[in-house]
């Protein structure tokens, strides 16, 4: 809540009035609130959660929770937002390299991100006449999300071992999202833009 309020203050200083919606993005209540916002020029699916543990230690409820918030929510939000979005608008989903690479304890989140990327491709084709749909896949970024990983420090160390030699920052990711939401990205559809300093290029 504090981070949301801080961001809202920054937006007010820029001359706009934000509307904060709190809740589970996969819930019907939140979807109805998004519908009531009216036409959106941009929809960014940046919410993510998940159970971090080995596959044999997971339960069906962990699968439902993780897949619901990380993948199904994008489809649900698109169903309520897209009909009102104007021509030339943009949808961007945030994914991760766990969709392609195997990370320790990441089986549910990685699977959900793979599903998310597949959904992005399908939506990109179906909505192409009016709306462009893409995804951004970030490398390791030092945020509160990493606090849920038992190997947090090792991940940060690995993340900095890209060819650039530093961690990806939230600003790096935001710049990629901003580009995909701009008119300059008009002919980019169903693409996963990797922002990892070249880490995934290494053998």
Would you give an account of this structure?
By secondary structure, this protein is an alpha/beta fold. Helices cover 40% and strands 12% of the residues. It contains six helices and four strands, in the order ααβαβαβααβ. It has helices at 2-13, 28-36, 60-81, 107-126, 152-159, 170-180; strands spanning 42-45, 89-96, 131-138, 192-195. A four-stranded parallel β-sheet has the order 1-2-3-4, sandwiched between helices. Strand 2 (89-96), helix 4 and strand 3 form a beta-alpha-beta unit. The longest helix is centred in the middle third of the chain and has 22 residues, at 60-81. The radius of gyration is 17 Å and the shape is globular.
Placed side by side, the strands forming the largest sheet appear as 1-2-3-4
Q: Into which percent range does the helicity of residues fall?
A: 40-55%
How many helix segments? 6
Radius of gyration using CA atoms only: 17 Å
Instruction: Provide the structure class.
Output: alpha/beta
């Amino acid at each position: 809540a504090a981070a949301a309020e801080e961001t809202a203050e920054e937006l007010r200083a820029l001359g706009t009035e934000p509307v904060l919606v709190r809740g589970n993005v996969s819930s019907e209540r939140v979807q109805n609130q998004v519908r009531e916002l009216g036409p959106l020029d941009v929809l960014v699916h940046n919410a993510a959660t998940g159970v971090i543990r080995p596959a044999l230690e997971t339960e069906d409820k962990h699968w439902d929770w993780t897949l619901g918030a990380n993948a199904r929510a994008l489809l649900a939000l698109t169903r309520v937002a897209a009909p009102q979005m104007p021509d030339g608008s943009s949808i961007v989903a945030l994914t991760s390299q766990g969709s392609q690479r195997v990370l320790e304890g990441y089986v549910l989140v990685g699977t959900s991100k793979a599903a998310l990327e597949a959904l992005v491709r399908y939506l990109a084709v179906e909505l192409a006449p009016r709306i462009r749909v893409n995804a951004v896949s970030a490398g390791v970024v030092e945020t509160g999300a990493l606090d849920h990983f038992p190997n947090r420090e090792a991940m940060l160390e690995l993340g900095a071992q890209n060819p650039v030699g530093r961690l990806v920052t939230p600003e790096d990711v935001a710049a990629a999202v901003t580009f995909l939401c701009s008119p300059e990205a008009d002919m980019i559809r169903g693409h996963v833009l990797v922002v990892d300093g070249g880490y995934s290029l290494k053998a």
